[in-house]
Amino acid sequence: MPLLRIDVIEGRSEAELKELLDAIHCAMLAAFKVPEHDRYQIVHEHPAAEMRIEDTGLGIPRTERVVMVQVTTRPRSRFEKQNFYELLCQELLRRCEVKASDVVVQLRRMPMKTGLSDTAEPSSSPENFDPIRQM
Amino acid sequence: MPLLRIDVIEGRSEAELKELLDAIHCAMLAAFKVPEHDRYQIVHEHPAAEMRIEDTGLGIPRTERVVMVQVTTRPRSRFEKQNFYELLCQELLRRCEVKASDVVVQLRRMPMKTGLSDTAEPSSSPENFDPIRQM
Amino acid sequence: MPLLRIDVIEGRSEAELKELLDAIHCAMLAAFKVPEHDRYQIVHEHPAAEMRIEDTGLGIPRTERVVMVQVTTRPRSRFEKQNFYELLCQELLRRCEVKASDVVVQLRRMPMKTGLSDTAEPSSSPENFDPIRQM
Would strands A116-117 and A103-109 be described as parallel, antiparallel, or unpaired? Predict the structure, then answer.
């Protein structure tokens, strides 16, 4: 159960937001091989003044279409992470007209052994805390 | 000082939000034995389109009452975590009519030795950085 | 590339928000020696009912000017962290009239080897995943 927080500047329609989330999930499915319904996405829309996203001095131009994706997941290999980033940029460009220069990704490892719980019957299903299944 | 981010779909009254936070804190007190005023809760309310919370394929029905609780805390035992989840579900059902199937929890360990600071007089009180006291 | 989430209670003007972000970045530059444009700040403004920030029983008075700063960064020394906190409190008081008693900081270590990616040309620049450069 990777959890994604997605920060954007306000102004997208509901349909555009849906397309954005679908594009991001598509990259997750392909790069991290999560099940189709292993989808936990939360969007935060901000006035432009609330997002100050610069470029570490790399000369990357940011626009108001900038998309910050923060992913909390179990440890992933360098290949998986790079693959995710590349697929993400491809999907966002193709489907949402967001350039790679507007894509910022932060991957956070979930270090806790039983980090995520998610079940309708917690008392009877302690194994739902298992991180292998959950993350 | 565990920090909680709580994501919900907009539509609750201020009184209902307060009850939600009280219910969550009640589970924290009982399961993690934190002091009564060790309470750091931040709510994010979202339009429904901003929260895409599925079920990893487990067949769990989500409604617009879904509550995502993200806890950053010092390491906790499996017992503490499971206990927290169970008490949380009980309290949310009893006090807020939120079913366990609408409760999603993510526990994140705070790995940093001096992870949290919180004091009115930082210069004179370096020990306030101590994670044992702070988390 | 440290990422900062800053939670405040709504009511500040855009100019006041800008000053707040500038003050926080100033403390980052001095304490963590990040490059000037290594600046990734996201603000969340909340109605007062959405932020329940108490004091762990330490008797610290909170007001509606409370500022919660959550920093995800590579590991930092105790000195760096304490220095950051002290400079942050100084800047926030001097420039934004926020007292140290209203400043709450959470530092989170980025444990992932290739934690952050941020580049306009990911395919050709795998080194942009390097955490030493990125965080």
Answer: unpaired
A75-100 pLDDT, tens digit per residue, is: 899 999 999 999 999 999 999 999 99
- How many structural domains does chain A have? 1
- Comparing B135 with A14, the larger pLDDT belongs to A14
Q: Which residues of B touch C (CB under 8 A)?
A: 1, 3, 14, 17-18, 21, 25, 35-45, 72, 110-123, 126, 129, 133-134
Examine the pLDDT at B103 and tell me if it is beyond 80: yes
Tokens 């992932």 locate to C112
- For A28, the token pair is 């997750």
The yes-or-no verdict on residue A132 having pLDDT over 90 is no
| H or E, element range at B69 | strand B67-73
Report the phi/psi class of residue B106: left, alpha or beta, with left for phi > 0 and alpha for psi in -120 to 50: beta
- Catalytic positions of B, please? 2
Cross-chain residue pair C129–A53, CB shorter than 8 Å: no
Task: Please give the Cα distance from A49 to C15 (Å, whole number).
Answer: 9
Residue C120 structural domain: 3-134
The residues, any chain, with a CB within 8 Å of residue C118's CB and separated by 6 or more, are: A55, A56, A58, A60, A104, A105, C1, C128, C134
Q: Which residues of A are catalytic?
A: 2
* Subunit contact B43:C56, Cβ cutoff 8 A: no
